[in-house]
Write a structure and sequence with these properties.
By secondary structure, the protein is of the alpha/beta class. It has one domain: Transcription Regulator spoIIAA (2-Layer Sandwich). Helix content is 39%, strand content 28%. It has a 5-stranded mixed sheet with strand order 1-2-3-4-5. Helix 1 (33-42) runs parallel beside helix 2 (62-78). The radius of gyration is 14 Å and the shape is globular.
């Protein structure tokens, strides 16, 4: 019997206040990263801020980080705001070790990211 394939769910939605929130849950790895990549490709960079909610992510490998870097590059190219929300301490340590804590904007929750966006207006 083979083990079930790791599951990743990605749920993009437009927050009523404007930003696009992409909720990610499960294992973000080389088997599943394409699901988030498709959501990043479809995200409305250039027309709204984008928040990627990683609070439901249980594992993230280098492929997942590459997708997040792609999202960052799209945001930079279009002048959009990109925030990562809900990054757990283990994942944050990885971001810090590779220097991405100096690149991304992090918030403890989607609500905190939304509040920060509204405070900048």
């Amino acid at each position: 019997m083979t083990a079930p394939e790791p599951l990743l769910t990605v749920d993009p939605r437009q927050d009523p206040s404007g930003p696009c929130v992409i909720e990610v849950a499960g294992e973000l790895d080389h088997h599943t990263a394409h699901v988030l990549s498709e959501a990043v490709d479809a995200a409305p960079f250039g027309t709204s801020a984008v928040i990627i909610d990683l609070s439901g992510v249980t594992y993230c490998d280098s492929t997942g980080i590459t997708v997040l870097i792609t999202a960052y590059r799209r945001a930079q190219a279009t002048g959009s705001s990109l925030s990562l929300a809900g990054v757990n301490p283990d994942q944050m340590r990885v971001f810090s070790v590779v220097g991405l804590d100096q690149v991304f904007t992090f918030h403890p929750s989607v609500q905190a990211a939304l509040s920060a966006l509204h405070a900048r207006r």
